[in-house]
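Translate sequence into structure tokens.
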Amino acid sequence: ARSVTFEPRGSWMRDTDGGKILGGPLWNTATTSLISFFSGFALDLAPYTKAITSFLPAVLPDRSAAQMQDIIDSLSFSDIRVSQDSLAVSINFAVESLPEPAVPAAALSPDELQQFEEQWHMMDALLVGAVKHYAAATELQSLRNALLDILLDSRYQLRDALTAPESGANDALRSWFVESWHQLGPVVRQIALEQDGQEHLMWFKVLAATDALYALDKLGSSIGVQISAEGLRRLARMINAGDIEEMLRYSEDVDPELQKLLRQQIETTQPKLSAVRFNFSLVSRAYAVSPADEVNRLVAGKDNLDTYLPKVASLLQASAERMTRERKLASDYTKLFENLVLATAWQESCWRQYVIENKRIVPLISASGDIGLMQVNERVWRGFYDMNKLRWDITYNSRTGTEILFNYMVQYALKRKEQTRPGGINNLARASYSAYNGGPGQVTRYRRTDVASVHRKVDQLFWDKYQQVDAGKKMNVAKCLGEELSGPA
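Result follows.
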């Protein structure tokens, strides 16, 4: 069967007291037409099976035509569930495992590495395009906020996936993509139900395809799931039949639509704290030159720390003061926020924007794409901020990282009332840094016990630095630089 219909078993009207009217001239006249009307209702499920059957070959490329046809022929519907708000139907299909490869995969060739990079670029671009498309289709700010949170958390997970060992990079990337779409599903369903007429039914084709992908991925590596460029194009086409190549285009340019999403979230989800008044504006592209700009293009060395470190401290403190002043943060939190900025820059970069490589001054960029003084990750914040300025303008980098920290503190840590838990007000700094390092979904990481040891260590190292800054010992950052500079070149 490829459709769902109603089969009326009975009908009645109710009087003003709630009692049933099962007969009489009025009901006898209407009942035949009503029964006929409800009997004629049909929900065509064929578009969803068609979406799955067109998508599966693109993600199961190692199947023969006969094997693929067997999968398609096995498609069926079951477990129909009706609620006040929805009709839920399970789609079933059978997939046989493939033999495990006898020989481990060889290291990727230069061409394969290029293909790998192009693939994750397309995946990230598609996820961004989907978030923008669905956000534009809803009037509910809570759903836009949910989409933005999913995107940011997904970007942090992408950063981690791309640092996986080369032998496991493809699996890590696929899992990241599949899990991101699984997180989007419930939000997209809610937005779809807002649409007029039958338009929302078309949206469910995407959900059917991505739910099938999620189910296949959960079956393990023996199923042989791969996400090809063609598979990404098919998904893009299901989301928006317009310019799919534009949806899949990866760019480092500032994206006004992403900036608008962030601005809307900040402006409409202020924590209900009388002490906090919050006005939002993304880091300005232009600003007055300050004395701290003297440190731009200056590299920290053992012979200049006495002059270098006070200038960077001044820059970081100015960025924090500017943020708390413009956003009108209550005085109770201003010192804490300044300490948070100083400790984060210490933890992330040892207060460095630049280093020397091959006798040239270059931005400090980590293997995972963290840039400069505040180590703002280019993969996480692509589209939100100017990547070139993050690399070559220490003031812009400082203000961007400070703004991200401020948003995490106000919109996440304060909103979750982290300051009311054991540890008090300083929890705001710890929670904000956990989010800065791991994403919005990691605000509580610093106090959880179910986190990886590497993350627990990172949070503890930050806390050690924060306590030193809070005790007036911010210049202890010199130890960090001295140890690095005294080691091998």
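Note: Residues 271-280, 483-489 have pLDDT under 50 and may be disordered.
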